[in-house]
Amino acid sequence: MDPGDADFEAFVAARGARLLRVAWLLTGDAHLAEDLLQSTLAKVWPKWSRISGDRPEAYVRKALVHLHASWWRRRWRGELSYADVPDAAGAVDAYAHVDLEQSLAAAVRALPVRQRAVVVLRYFEDLSVQDTAAALGCSPGTVKSQSSRALRSLRALLPERVDGGDRCG
């Protein structure tokens, strides 16, 4: 067995769950998240000997986000899903019981792909502005502006959670 194989396996064992969480937050679907992570790992595997010493998690996370964006662009061109649209008659009742986590996850999935990536990396993965910029291949200013737009959109998508009685403190 090549020493690189063992390093890669150790990395996946140590960081796989965290990377799967990022993939799930980006896709909103457990099966798509697994596919996204597996495809990402398959792409970085041949380059592992070059990246393993220099912040491998950041490299893999960046590859994951970029591959997700690529998948999203491809899907956007080809298909539109109306499965999540409630019927008009039961719309109010259907969402009356939805808890904050489900509402937030749906709202994050409704964001444009770039804003979703910023929110996932900044607020779910707790990366700094600089680390998020590095992961997305953009400037820190872009991360800040995308973050601001995303939070504004989330406030609009979740007004009852922001303005209502569900606030903490």
UniProtKB/TrEMBL annotation:
GO biological process, one term: DNA-templated transcription initiation
Record's keyword annotation contains Transcription regulation: yes
Record-linked InterPro entries: RNA_pol_sigma-70-like, RNA_pol_sigma-70_dom, RNA_pol_sigma-E_actinobac, RNA_pol_sigma70_r2, RNA_pol_sigma70_r4_t2, RNA_pol_sigma_r2, RNA_pol_sigma_r3/r4-like, WH-like_DNA-bd_sf
Chain ranges of the RNA polymerase sigma-70 region domain: 14-77
Residue ranges of every copy of the RNA polymerase sigma factor 70 region 4 type domain listed in the record: 102-154
Single GO term (MF): sigma factor activity
Record keywords: DNA-binding, Sigma factor, Transcription, Transcription regulation
Keyword Transcription regulation in annotation: yes
SUPFAM superfamilies on file: Sigma2 domain of RNA polymerase sigma factors (SSF88946), Sigma3 and sigma4 domains of RNA polymerase sigma factors (SSF88659)
Family: Belongs to the sigma-70 factor family. ECF subfamily.
Name assigned to this protein: SigE family RNA polymerase sigma factor
The species this protein was found in: Streptomyces corynorhini
